[in-house]
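G.,

No rush on this.
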Amino acid sequence: MILIAPFSKALRNGGNNPKNYPFWKGVLKGLNGRKVVQVGVEGEEKLTKDFRKNLAFTEIEKLIKECDIWVSVDNFLPHMAHHLKKTGIVLWGQSDPNIFGYPENMNLLKDRKYLRPDQFLIWEQAEYLADAFVRPEVVLESLKGAR
């Protein structure tokens, strides 16, 4: 089972969070029927048949331990998985994996030129840049080892 956490916290201004990976549908299409469980919160787009929202931390912990691999944007899941010593794939856009990531994970960053100059500003001050992310083919290639 592949566990995904596709979205970061909603922005207060209602804009698209610059941490949100724009190409999930391409990734999911390329998984050829593998079981995928999505975790998130009420109001997020449902990308999979199995979308579990508003879970308690203990339930997310159980899913992390049970999954073959997890794939997430820069949100809570990589931090919880690090605590549980479960490696996965993180999709980075404008936030710096050298600051916010963990070296044991596969940190997919398209190009450092897209990183925000001030990594600690609030996200409402950042423009959403879909081009800052790797394409689905890169994610799918990275997942091959988890089959």
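When you get to it, here's the other one too:
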Amino acid sequence: MDLVREIVDLVAQVPPGRVSTFVDVAQALGDAKAAPAAFRILREREARGAHRVVRATGEIPWAGAGARLRKEGVSVSGGRVTDLGRVRFTEFEGPRTLALLREEQARLAAQVRRTDRAGCWERVAGFDVAYDGDDAVAAAVVMDPDGARVLEALSLRVRIDFPYVPGYLAYREFPAIERCYRRLDPKPDVVLVDGHGILHPARFGIASYAGVALDTPTIGVAKHLLVGQAGPLPREPGDVADIRLDGEVLGAGLRSGPSRRLIYVSVGHSISLETAVRITKRLCRTRIPEPLRLADRLAESEKRKNQERKMKKKH
């Protein structure tokens, strides 16, 4: 799937004398939340007809686009399309990829198991991804269950072709995570992912996607909430607050250390919330569980090395 190409193709459908908004393009993709992604892509890439895409207020974000729109018969004043309602184009044709992905999330969410898989929990892996333009560095760090000893660590560079869209992080990051996971030997008993599991708008975040796709127990550990409401905030390190969505407990806000900033733990796949919280809490020497913290450091370190190599080649 090439969401960037789909956006470019949609924009090319806007005829002279008409304009669309970033929200219109996002809705043609299948989800209005993709509007910021559409803006970023059109800002960074040449696309035929991009000057005909404006903000929902009619504001024109592109230098020189106002003059071009006037030549095409669009009324422009003060850097804004003044008759947006009359000239607005929304009759797009396309595969509506994000709508299809939402349907896929719903199907796969039914496969998530919220009970503990039988077996030991001796090898715990954390995965993280750092970005450098269209490239990403994925890192995996495998540790003992106390987070005291690194058993294995690796990183690799991956080309990313799916833009960031809230609610669809799995489609951006999982290919890189999967490549790291396949190289681990032996495989970890449980995987921690920097992101949500079932505590997600589709109840199927990246931790759940990874767990179902890899058929392995996974835990989602996120720094920020996407959905849900926390109960009474934890007062002491180690305390947790239930995170509810539509009245159901789907996660836990864990105060993992002296900081009052919580981390949000949720079931990914093949694990109970109670076990997910227990494992996460045991691994926290700082706010972030050690496998994730070290994976983040490794990914960032390798990203900087890649950037330095690029600079050397230029000189």
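The chain has two domains: 3-95, 109-309. The mean pLDDT is 94.

Enjoy the weekend,
O.
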